[in-house]
Amino acid sequence: MTAAGPLPPLAALGLAARMLEANGFAIVARNERGDSLYLRRPDCAWHLRVSNHRRTAKQRARRSDILASLVIDGPRSSDQIGNLVREAVRNFEAALARMADQASAAGSRK
To answer: What are phi and psi of 66, to 5 degrees?
Structure first.
């Protein structure tokens, strides 16, 4: 998928969300401005966030259910967005594996 030129951030966020949906994620929430989307896979309590800005410490404390974020803060080509989506999915899966390892280690100490 190659666009004629870079997509503006909100359009790039929409494309990233569609690419994530193709990877089994579904949009479950969005903020009022529409510049942050929260996605998750069925039967998974953890979220992946797509936004045009990084989370603040206050946001991280309030939403500890987010395992990974994809930030698109400027124009991006569809190829760049595809790379960011692949990286976000890898980060999400790695964080999910760490959570499972921690749960397994905690269970084996009992």
So the answer is: -95, 120
